[in-house]
Write a structure and sequence with these properties.
Chain A is 37% helix and 26% strand. With 399 residues, chain A is an alpha+beta fold. Chain B folds into two domains: 180 residues, Thiamin diphosphate (ThDP)-binding fold, Pyr/PP domains (Rossmann fold, 3-Layer(aba) Sandwich), CATH 3.40.50; 130 residues, Rossmann fold. Chain B is 38% helix and 21% strand. Chain B has 13 helices and 14 strands. The chains are: A alpha+beta (399), B alpha/beta (327).
């Protein structure tokens, strides 16, 4: 028997709302099965169970907020219980009762904790809440046990504070608050990145004409829906380059450089309503170009539909950001901690290009790399960009 | 010119003035002629205006209210007197299905310029069938206006306002107010229908009321003032339409509300007012709104039980203090 805990779906996540259980008590689950949907600041994520077993007890109600690490369910080990359940399928009463008793014994602190939380809810009058909103008074300063927070308390508090900055802050806040959850998540991660990670930046121009020509030839033979988009070859080229320069693929954790064997590039995907998510294209290293294309389409669709899985939110080993569609020529990314690097891909534009002694026009893309200088040096990054260039000059190798 | 007269005289003067100025105006109801009205409001009018304009009717509220509607639709300006609000229930069909509906049902072709006066109010040991305040309930009706004059000035002004309104207007005269005295300025411009009046400005708590309870609320406010609570007392004057603007303005100032209503609590005008404040001024509230209403019993006859059932000054004071310390 083990507890299924609220997973951390990002270095910056503190809690999430369990939106829906996709299993019920008594259900048999297997490793990797999606058993719940949780809503984080980044959207709705499907979360997977990490072992085989039987859902013995769901500890958390739907639509309740849970901290990372909080037990969500009890999963009974698969060994005896399933037999019981299956055998006594007709008269499952005893089994259910048995498990119930066990839970009561094993989970007494849970309900009390909930009660305390309910009792501790701050009561605040509407007028006081409105005033607090106007003055930017900090409601967390009030003790729920001191009774209702009324206008007089807020007024008293704001006369003691009365600072100009709070007022200005509350005014300028209004815009940001709309997607504050995600904005806050990005803000936290990126502040941490810039504070902790010494970045180095490299940039190189890549002649994309050979790759695009090759792609054109390839697509000619294919039906429209099977066609490969340039972004797929770019990702493929990054992944293959990472295989040769694995130092950039992994994490900097506990002051040590950890190289990941699998390559799960996080693909920066802009959401239509604003904000950005970088879900992982899982196991991109063992994909063909077609797999890459298909998986990418699927990933984008699910990201925008808010249907990502927890592993996709947590497994990224490197980030690829492509601002080419906006005509941006070079992107110098900020590394998402604890990753080691971010690859930036700019727009493919017609540029003057020297070949031998001749000057000609080619499709050119700027590829950049921001690396964590604690883990790697510019030289490693340089090798990576060189390999990236190599693959894009020799597109046949991408298949 | 100022002079002090009773509420009863003010109503009578208003009717007399209207009848003198406009020959389409007439009064009908039970005992309004020979007997001079059960509350003596129309005493003397029969001699002055004759049987064609001061009409005694049979005991049939539905019939004479219906007759009033017909007369109004045909260009007359009838004042129908219903002896007490309890009896108006017999005329509800006429009030709702005809008076309140005809303008809409005729596509705006027929107004019903009818005035219905009723005695209302609790107290005076009249028993359950003669002593209720159903004006909140009648305010539910679409198509009519509901006025509740509390002061002598309003008793006088509102008859004129009601008669000049093209639509049916119900005027609720509290029977316990008929003997009350006040100054009357017959030359002043009447405050229009649908406008509430701040009788006593205050900053700590709003007491919303109408009719006779205005005076209980004002008395309560004086006592509250001694305890350092500055109550604002508002006379709603009109229960339909309600003056949302004045109500919300006051709530935004005091952030606390007590509603004093002669009716029963459940489904009352006080419930409607609470709902509106919730809709329009929720974020102005600093404490839950409270009500002082008549207990939910048919009004008892016995004096001590009757007193216990109805709104009293000390109940208003108690409730206001409770709201003030609410936490």
């Amino acid at each position: 028997m083990s507890k299924f805990l609220m997973p951390s779906l990002g270095a910056d996540m503190e809690s999430a709302i369990l939106m829906e259980w996709l299993v019920k008590e008594g259900d048999r689950v297997s490793k990797g099965q999606i058993i719940a949907e949780v809503e984080t600041s980044k959207g709705v994520i499907e979360i997977e169970v990490f072992e085989d077993g039987i859902v013995e007890k769901l500890l958390v109600k739907e639509e309740s907020e849970c901290k990372v690490g909080e037990p969500l369910a009890i999963i009974a080990s698969d060994e005896k219980k399933p037999l019981h359940v299956e055998e006594k399928h007709e008269s499952k009463q005893p089994v259910v009762q048995e498990t119930k008793e066990e839970q009561i014994v094993s989970e007494p602190p849970k309900p009390t904790a909930l009660h305390v939380e309910q009792e501790a809810r701050l009561k605040i009058s509407p007028a006081a809440r409105k005033k607090a909103g106007e003055t930017g008074a900090d409601l967390s300063k009030f003790d729920p046990n001191d009774g209702v927070v009324q206008l007089s308390k807020i007024e008293a508090a704001s006369t003691t504070e009365q600072e100009e900055p709070t007022k200005i802050e509350s005014k300028s806040d209004t815009h940001i608050e709309k997607n504050s959850g995600m904005r806050q998540a990005i803000a936290t991660a990126m502040s941490r990145s810039n504070a902790e990670i010494p970045h180095y930046y490299l940039s190189t121009s890549i002649n994309m004409t050979p790759a695009l020509k090759y792609l054109e030839e390839l697509n000619k033979k294919r039906s429209i829906k099977d066609r490969i988009l340039p972004v797929a070859i770019l990702i493929r080229a990054v992944v293959l380059s990472l295989k040769e320069v694995p130092e950039l693929n992994g994490f900097w954790q506990n002051n040590s450089h950890q190289i990941s064997k699998e390559i799960h590039p996080g693909i920066a995907i802009a959401l239509r309503k604003g904000g950005l998510i970088t879900p992982a294209l899982l196991n991109a290293d063992i994909m063909t170009i077609d797999d890459t294309m298909n998986s990418l389409s699927d990933l984008i669709t699910r990201t925008r539909g808010g249907k990502l899985r927890s592993t996709e939110m947590t497994s990224q080993t490197i980030t690829i950001t492509n601002l080419g569609d906006l005509g941006v020529e070079s992107v110098f990314g900020v590394i998402y901690p604890p990753q080691l690097a971010v690859v930036g891909l700019g727009a493919i534009i017609d540029s003057p290009w020297a070949e031998g002694d001749a000057l000609c026009v080619r499709k050119v893309m700027r590829a950049t790399l921001a690396g964590d200088h604690r883990a790697t040096d510019g030289r490693t990054g340089g090798v990576f960009l060189d390999r990236l260039n190599h693959y894009l000059q020799n597109p046949k190798e991408l298949l | 010119m100022d002079n002090t007269i009773t509420y009863r005289e003010a109503v009578r003067e208003a009717i007399r003035k209207a009848m003198s100025e406009d020959e389409r105006v007439f009064l009908m109801g039970e005992d309004v002629g020979n007997y001079g009205g059960s509350y003596a409001v129309s005493r003397g009018l029969l001699d002055e205006f004759g049987r064609e304009r001061i009409i005694d009717t049979p005991l049939s509220e539905s019939a004479f209210t219906g007759a009033g509607i017909g007369a109004a639709m045909n260009g007359m300006r009838p004042i129908v007197e219903i002896m007490t609000v309890n009896f108006s229930l017999l005329a509800l069909d006429q009030i709702i299905n005809n008076a309140g509906s005809l303008l809409h049902m005729s596509g705006g072709q027929f107004n019903v310029p009818l005035v219905i006066r009723m005695a209302t109010g609790v107290g005076n040991q009249l028993g359950a069938q003669h002593s209720h305040s159903l004006e909140g309930w009648l305010s539910y009706i679409v198509g009519v206006k509901v006025l509740t004059p509390a002061t002598v000035q309003d008793a006088y002004d509102m008859i004129g306002l009601a008669l000049s309104d093209p639509d049916p207007v119900l005027v609720f005269e509290n029977s316990l107010l008929y003997n009350s005295k006040g100054s009357l300025d017959t030359k002043s411009t009447p405050i229009p229908i649908g406008k509430a009046l701040v009788h006593r400005p205050g900053k700590d708590i709003t007491i919303l009321t109408y009719g006779i309870n205005l005076f209980k609320a004002l008395e309560a406010a004086e006592t509250l003032a001694k305890d350092g609570i500055d109550a604002e007392v508002i006379d709603l004057r009109s229960l339909r339409p309600l003056d949302d603007e004045t109500i919300m303005k006051s709530v935004a100032k005091t952030h606390r509300v007590v509603i004093v209503d002669d009716g029963w609590k459940s489904g009352s005008i006080s419930a409607e007012i609470m709902a509106r404040i919730n809709e329009q001024a929720f974020y102005e509230l600093d404490a839950p709104m409270a009500r002082v209403c008549t207990l939910e019993v048919p009004l008892p006859y016995a004096k001590h039980l009757e007193d216990a059932a109805i709104v009293q000054v000390d109940k208003i004071i108690e409730m206001a203090k409770k709201v003030m310390v609410q936490s």
